[in-house]
Specification:
about 260 residues; alpha/beta; Rossmann fold
């Protein structure tokens, strides 16, 4: 009889657990995507897409044919955000890998660079495409070798309204000593090849002021195998970490 009562209690407990178990969470439909493009999509907030200042800045870049017609708003906003963070720091702006100047033209409008006469914005590029010798072992050699046009004259016209914009034409890293900035508050690297990109970071690192952002456009891009490995080694050697962004960019700050 005792065994029967014990068995009965077990059955009652199991039945109670079944009857009073937690109901499953309601299956809410996912919210609509707030952004989809440039390699990723999200349902999270993206208020910057409606920011009039950002829309104006982005429009300036699109008007000069930047990014070969692609729409890359989130990646572009990362550049604007970093440029704005650097605005209050001592030093100059530097971009290595300019092409038509989309990122820099956009950033200048976003931060009001025409009202910062004490700063310079150095634009470093061959303006004739990626040098052949840097593409020797690149799996994207054919694509990258034909993707870029001669843009020097166009860039000169684009940045003519900014007397403190300095165009530096030449190959990286050979041309880097021509950049006259002793102190740098912002560095953007978008060279599409690993060795010149790391060489630019190494050259400018000691000139970057504390808190200066470095934007690595190609850091997490799947098209550029080895870029993240090389920059991770660069960061470890200096005791810093790179934030990998869903845009494919990397972001770090000078301590």
């Amino acid at each position: 009889m005792a065994e029967d009562l014990s068995l009965s209690r077990k059955i009652r407990r199991r039945l109670a657990r079944y009857i009073w178990r937690e109901p499953p969470a309601p299956a809410f439909p996912p919210p609509p995507y707030t952004y989809a493009g440039d390699g990723f999509m999200t349902v999270h907030r993206a208020e910057f897409l409606c920011d009039p200042l950002f829309r104006e800045a982005y429009g300036h870049a699109k008007s000069i044919g930047a990014w070969h017609g692609a729409d890359i708003e989130w990646r572009a906003y990362t550049v604007c955000w970093a440029a704005a963070k650097a605005r209050g720091l001592e030093g100059d702006y530097v971009e290595c890998g300019v092409d038509r100047g989309g990122f820099s033209r956009m950033a200048m409008h976003y931060i009001g660079f025409d009202r910062l006469p004490e700063k310079k914005f150095y634009l470093v590029d061959t303006f004739t495409g990626i040098p052949e010798e840097t593409l020797t072992d690149d799996p994207n050699r054919e694509l990258l070798g034909t993707r870029y046009d001669r843009t020097y004259d166009d860039v000169v016209r684009t940045f003519a309204p900014f007397p403190n914009a300095v165009i530096v034409q030449g190959k990286v890293p050979e041309i880097l000593p021509s950049v006259g900035a002793d102190r740098i508050c912002y560095l953007c690297i978008d060279l599409n090849t690993t060795a010149p990109s790391v060489a630019a970071a190494e050259f400018f690192w000691d000139r970057m002021v504390s808190g200066a952002p470095m934007v690595l456009d190609d850091y997490g891009q799947t098209y550029f195998d080895g870029m993240n490995v090389a920059f991770d080694a660069f960061a470890r050697a200096r005791g810093v970490e790179i934030l990998a962004l869903p845009t494919g960019q990397g972001l770090l700050f000078k301590p």
